[in-house]
Specification:
Chain lengths: 216, 227
């Protein structure tokens, strides 16, 4: 959202708007696990946050977060994607925008809303109507050729996360080469290796979010 | 000519309003084993238009069109529409789709859309789709007949698109259902134009199969669409 849109949104809602961050990537890459790992890290840094999930078929991701004990369940909203995981975050993000607006109205102090996509392929990207900044999550088990395929998600995101780094030796992935190729295709824009299950690299992801959209 | 272009703009499925996420009973019918081939889908579209849209949406659209500048009156129509929509998932879908349309127009600065959105967020309005269509589309420069036509058209294209995405019918074959429905839509919109003044007391619908399918859909653990 640019400055003019942000001002318009404030006029439309009557209150300050939260920073909105998208987290997209293929099914099974670890988006929900990354959010589960990020929540306590961001809470520890004093960030007031909420989450919107986009589940493709069920409400599993939303329920998983609500039952996690990591966040007030009221702060997790679910948006059904109507069989269109691309559409709901890009061509028609209005349901997600409205879900974010509702969370802001219910929790006036919220300063960060994470939007988790329903999981898609490498062509998935977020509309800048919906988010200010977005992360694309891939994983080593998906193959070390993913960066070389230069999908729009890999190339255009603000931060590329390569998750499940611990699996590299088990799936025959040359991790240093995968990281180097990812940085190369992204013209040296940020890439972070994580193991969301163990929390490795999650602090670095939080650093990037704090710096990019919370300015602290 | 402006009204025509405004209508093309608003009836275009590329306009972001959240409509893609709602099947309005189609997914529930499929779960019940209803055949939605060319004949089956055409019949369902005719049923929804004749026995739901004509007695519910059409009236709310016209009343909201007439009351576009009167927020209290819009809230009253909206609440009456809410009370007359029986299946909970149908009600929820209409409200969420209405809020989606309102969200886009609030961002675009259309008429009183931002104020209406505040009314919804503060609970003074429910934000049902036909009410938002009537008020917002008038502010877009559409005449009443065009608003009614766009409302009917988007109702059936939404259901048709859902049937395609559920792989119940092919994308091209679905267009034959839509084409077969055009004369009915034209007749209903003409009839609406000839009808005398209507009030919220005239809200009525009789689509038991669709309603039951929608109600059953509410408890489905696995679903692609909101309703």
């Amino acid at each position: 959202m640019n400055m003019i849109d942000n001002q318009r949104a404030k006029e439309a809602t009557g209150h300050a708007v939260a920073a909105r961050v998208g987290i997209g990537g293929p099914v099974g890459s670890g988006k929900t696990a990354l959010i589960e790992a990020l929540i306590p890290v961001l809470h520890a840094r004093g960030v007031d946050l909420a989450v919107v999930t986009n589940d493709l078929v069920t409400k599993e991701d939303a329920e998983r977060l609500r039952r996690s004990g990591l966040i007030d369940p009221q702060r997790v909203a679910a948006v059904e994607a109507g069989a269109c995981p691309h559409t709901v975050i890009r061509e028609d993000p209005t349901l997600n925008i409205a879900a974010g607006d509702e969370l802001e109205a219910r929790f006036p102090g919220v300063e960060l809303i994470l939007f988790e996509s329903g999981g898609d392929n490498l062509a998935s990207t977020f509309s800048l109507d919906l988010v200010d900044w977005w992360i694309f999550v891939i994983d080593v088990a998906g193959g070390d050729d993913i960066p070389r395929k230069k999908g729009p998600g890999t190339l255009r995101c603000d931060l590329l996360v390569i998750n499940k780094q611990d699996l590299a030796p088990h799936v025959g992935v040359d991790l240093p080469r995968m990281l180097e190729e990812a940085r190369s295709v992204r013209a040296q824009r940020p890439v972070i290796l994580t193991d969301a299950r163990r929390g490795d690299g999650v602090g670095d992801v939080a650093d990037q979010i704090m710096k990019a959209v919370l300015f602290r | 000519m402006l009204s025509l272009f405004a209508t093309l703009w608003q009836a275009d499925s590329a306009f972001p309003n959240g409509g893609f996420a709602f099947s309005n009973g189609i997914e529930g019918l499929a779960d019940l084993g209803q055949r939605l081939d060319r004949e089956g889908l055409t019949n369902v579209l005719a049923m929804a238009l004749t026995h739901r849209w004509m007695g519910m949406d059409r009236i709310a659209v016209s009343l909201a069109f007439a009351a576009a500048d009167d927020m209290d009156r819009l809230a009253e129509i909206d609440l009456r529409f809410d009370a007359a929509t029986i299946p909970a998932l149908q009600r929820a879908g209409s409200r969420r789709n209405g809020l989606g349309l309102l969200t886009a127009h609030a961002r675009l600065g259309t008429g009183a859309a931002a104020e209406m959105k505040r009314q919804v967020e503060t609970g003074r309005m429910r934000g049902h789709l036909p009410v938002i269509q009537g008020a917002v589309w008038r502010a877009c420069g559409m005449d009443e007949t065009s608003v009614l036509a766009a409302s009917a058209y988007t109702a059936v294209t939404g259901m048709t698109s859902a049937a395609v995405r559920l792989s119940l019918i092919g994308a091209v074959e679905a267009q034959s259902c839509l084409r077969a429905t055009l004369p009915l839509m034209a007749r209903l919109v003409d009839d609406a134009g000839r009808a005398g003044p209507l009030t919220c007391d005239d809200f009525e619908s009789l689509t038991p199969m669709l309603d039951i399918a929608t109600m059953r859909h509410a408890t489905s653990e696995v679903r692609l669409f909101s309703n």
